[in-house]
Write a structure and sequence with these properties.
This protein is of the alpha+beta class. It has one domain: 2-Layer Sandwich (Gyrase A, domain 2), CATH 3.30.1360. It contains seven helices and 19 strands. A six-stranded mixed beta sheet has the order 10-11-12-9-3-13, with helices on both faces. A hairpin with a 4-residue loop joins β16 and β17. The chain is globular.
């Protein structure tokens, strides 16, 4: 990018795609128009934009200062049975046995060579019942294969998910359950809640770096009435200014928050160490897939943040150092909060004799013009990650 600043970088072309064999959201009837542009994630369509020329910045500020509802394509898998924990200990790099019922934990699954296969959030719904909310890509067969010989079942609960995100998100939840939300409903806590007469699983998690919740609907005999849930949430959220948003505003905020997307930001040849996620690898727990390789793996980090005052990083753009190519951008945008370009840079190799962090490099825009940029830590906004951990006071915020 040169010349005028752009707040949002659209890294991908829009193509026409039939919805045949794709998961259309049961909430779609509440917001879809002939201008809606969909993305595809986990085999599910989701609203990427409300219109081709949508400006995401007003909704971005609504997310940062108020509250928004997103219809998201996240897909949980259920692992249940007496040996469910053993399956997950075998597959994930985190410790599973210490996860209490009603809690969530970030979990990475690796291949035998230590590279990242999948990442997601693990939640414990009951003693022998877990949900793993996975990233994009196939993972069921991997779990099935490693459950052979164990008393555990891997199933698809076919749960559709809503995210309510922003500083007033817990005010909306409190109103939606009729009051009485506990002050102890903290970050990465979860539980069953009665919302408008329907029992749904709610976790205090999200993909924005703001305070927020995720609501998981039911299928089967106890299927959620999706329209009734939607209408109830908006009726209860009206006093707090709850509005629907496409994923475009979330896209900006998740980059500012340093949230990585598996398969794009976490490229298939990266180990957790290379992706800067080494803290989520517990090498002293019982053996798990990839452990032997990770014990011997290079601990050098290859994925970092990049800040550029004169250009918005865009997926695929080259990064140079000392007049030679050293890496590329996986995703980027213009940060409205910081008023600068931010993105993720994947370096090809460790910096000989040093560390990439803090280095000044060159970002080459689409015309090949170099822009000075600085390698930074993630996240870019809220460095201490305090916002999503904010304790709810029980009081409703005023507009």
């Amino acid at each position: 990018m040169t010349g005028d600043r752009h707040f949002y970088v659209d890294s991908f072309d829009t193509v026409r795609l039939s919805s045949y064999r794709l998961g259309r959201s049961p909430f779609a009837g509440r917001y879809v128009t002939d201008q809606t542009i969909f993305g595809l994630y986990c085999g599910r369509l989701y609203p990427l934009k409300t219109a081709p020329e949508e400006d995401p910045v007003p909704r971005y500020w609504k997310l940062r200062r108020g509250v928004l509802l997103y219809d998201v394509p996240e897909k949980p898998l259920e692992i249940s049975g007496p040996d469910a924990g053993r399956v997950l200990e075998r597959v994930l790099t985190c410790r599973v046995a210490t996860l209490a019922v009603g809690r969530a934990r970030y979990g990475i699954a690796c291949r035998e060579d230590g590279t990242v296969l999948m990442d997601g959030v693990l939640m414990r719904l009951a003693q022998d019942r877990y949900w793993y909310v996975k990233a994009n890509g196939e993972f069921t067969s991997w779990l099935d294969a490693h459950a052979v010989g164990l008393d555990a079942d891997v199933t698809d609960p076919d749960s559709r998910v809503l995210q309510i995100q922003g500083p007033k998100s817990l005010d909306v939840l409190d109103a939606a359950i009729g009051g009485g939300l506990s002050n102890d409903f903290r970050y990465f806590h979860a539980g069953f809640f009665d919302i408008g007469g329907q029992a749904v699983w709610v976790s205090r998690t999200g993909w924005t770096g703001e305070m927020g919740i995720e609501i998981y609907c039911n299928s089967g005999p106890e299927a959620t009435d999706h329209d009734a849930l939607w209408d109830h949430l908006f009726a209860c959220g009206e006093p707090f200014g709850l509005e629907f948003s496409s994923g475009s505003s979330m896209g900006i905020r998740r980059i500012e928050a340093g949230i990585l997307d598996n398969g794009t930001d976490i490229e298939p040849d990266l180990t957790p160490f290379g992706a800067g996620l080494g803290n989520f690898v517990v090498l002293d727990k019982e053996d798990f897939i990839g452990r032997s390789a990770l014990v011997k793996a290079d601990r050098s980090q290859l994925l970092f943040g990049l800040v550029c005052a004169t250009a918005a990083p865009d997926a695929g753009l080259q990064v140079h150092f000392e007049n030679r190519p050293v890496g590329h951008i996986t995703i980027g945008t213009w940060s409205p909060t910081l008023d600068t370009g931010v993105g993720y840079v994947r370096f090809d190799h460790p910096l000989p004799g040093g560390d990439w962090l803090g280095r000044t490099v060159s970002l080459l825009d689409h015309e090949g013009t170099p822009h000075p940029a600085t390698v930074d830590t993630l996240p870019f906004v809220d460095k201490e990650k305090r916002l999503p951990r904010t304790q709810w006071s029980g009081g409703r915020s005023e507009e």
